[in-house]
Design a protein that fits this description.
The termini are far apart. This protein has helices at about 5-10, 15-30, 45-60, 70-85, 100-110, 125-135, 155-160, 185-195, 225, 255-265, 275-285, 290-310, 345-360, 380-400, and strands at about 35, 95, 115-120, 140-145, 165-170, 200-205, 230-235, 250, 315-320, 325-330, 340, 340-345, 360, 365, 375. α5 runs parallel beside α6. The chain is globular, with a radius of gyration of 21 Å. The mean pLDDT is about 95. The protein is of the alpha/beta class. It has a 7-stranded mixed beta sheet with strand order 2-8-7-6-5-3-4, with helices on both faces. A 4-stranded antiparallel beta sheet has the order 9-10-15-14. A two-stranded parallel sheet has the order 1-13.
Length: about 400
């Protein structure tokens, strides 16, 4: 028998797999499942982006390019940072990878040594701690409470820093909470990080998906000192409905980019060439389609929150999200109750019971480090969304 490495054995399997497997079984049996668990836009990739990939194929752009990315795409990304974030980067500071998740792995692998501690606000995207552990780092959590809008404070960051602390993972807009930090909040956190020389991994993949008058502000904009400590993660998956194309990118100090480029040349080499030409079309082709998608998400968000307001009397609550396409539904008031003879102990029980008895798939909050809630996505049709919310309300009414 082949022995598994200690490095890979530290990674926990996804707790969502059991729920996903049951959902797939129901679908295979012909049962309609309303899926609130989706983490991708339910829109097709805009046609001009698809056409760019087709054109690249027709022109024979099917060979290797530089491992760190196509120069023309890097130029488009540099332009994007200047236009959207007023940040100046050289193309050598940009690395193109196979999705934002790959960019996150590269960044942590390149900067975290065994024993380094990484501060992660929770609720967190479930991949963060697993990547940290796989690179020998130690995840340390800062609780972003519902009371404070699921946002951590500069004081919390200050209190969490120890001699071993190397990095803060900062995600705004946030998955799973939808929280969007204000410029004032970000500047306060930046001051702490600069004072203690803390690297910030800024995951900004949901940058364009913001509603309710909020705006995106990158922590790298705070000061030249903060920019030199920041690795920005972004990509085309969420903003341009390109999840399956698998292209993310990062911007960082030159020495970090050089190290990541070297590593990527030995691991995956370049992102597939046609996708890179498609990404150029996405970044350079205007935002009309993206704005239409964001408008639809905004409308769904309003309808979801209106329905959730009606459900508060059932012991359910939420914190209004301003970004991404998720809502954390607080359901801990149901814990200790029973449903059809089964006692509810936590968010996994809520998810399992809703799937089996109401054919509704949700993501249990325990996956994100917060067992008091479940995550609902509004990246599904309005009709399905409202139907699914009513089924959740029925479930809450039937608990005893």
């Amino acid at each position: 028998m082949i022995e598994i490495s200690k490095r890979i054995s530290t990674i926990a399997p996804s707790m969502t797999l059991a729920v996903s497997a049951k959902a797939n079984e129901l679908k295979a049996a012909g049962i309609k499942v309303i899926n609130f668990g989706v983490g991708e836009p339910d829109f097709n990739t805009p046609e001009h982006i698809c056409q760019a990939a087709k054109d690249a194929l027709d022109k024979g752009y099917t060979r290797y390019v530089a491992a760190s990315g196509l120069p023309a795409l890097k130029k488009s990304i540099v332009k994007k940072f200047k236009t959207d974030n007023n940040l100046d980067y050289d193309p050598s500071q940009i690395i193109i990878s196979n999705g934002a998740k790959h960019s996150i792995f590269n960044a942590i692998f390149a900067t975290i040594n065994p024993g380094d501690e990484v501060l992660i606000p929770k609720p967190y995207w479930l991949t963060y701690p697993e990547v940290v552990k796989s690179c020998g780092g130690i995840p340390e959590y800062i609780y972003a409470t519902p009371r404070h809008g699921y946002k951590i404070t500069a004081a919390q960051v200050e209190a969490a820093i120890r001699p071993q602390t190397k990095m803060l993972i900062f995600n705004s807009p946030c998955n799973p909470t939808g929280a969007v930090y204000t410029e004032k909040e970000i500047r306060a956190i930046s001051e702490v990080c600069v004072e203690h020389n803390i690297v910030v991994l800024a995951d900004e993949i949901y940058e364009k998906l913001i509603y309710g008058g909020e705006t995106h502000f990158s922590i790298a904009q705070c000061s030249p000192e903060m920019k030199d400590l920041t690795i920005i993660i972004n990509g085309v998956s969420k903003s341009y409905a390109m999840t399956g194309w698998r292209l993310g990118y990062l911007a960082c100090p030159a020495n970090v980019a050089k190290a990541i480029s070297s590593f990527q040349s030995h691991s995956t080499s370049n992102v597939n060439t046609m996708t890179q030409y498609a990404a150029i079309a996405a970044l350079e082709g205007g935002n009309e389609k993206m704005n239409e998608m964001v408008k639809v998400f905004g409308q769904r968000r309003q309808k979801m929150l209106a329905k959730l307001d009606e459900m508060k009397s059932l012991g359910l609550d939420y914190v209004s999200p301003h970004g991404a396409f998720y809502v954390m539904l607080l359901c801990d008031n149901l814990y200790g109750k029973n449903y059809k003879g089964e006692k509810i102990h936590g968010s996994m029980d809520v998810a399992n019971l809703l799937l089996v008895h109401k054919n509704v798939a949700i993501t249990p909050g325990v996956c994100f480090g917060d067992d008091d809630a479940v995550r609902l996505s509004y990246a599904l049709s309005t009709a399905d969304m409202l139907d699914g919310l009513e089924r959740i309300a029925e479930f809450a009414r039937e608990c005893y």
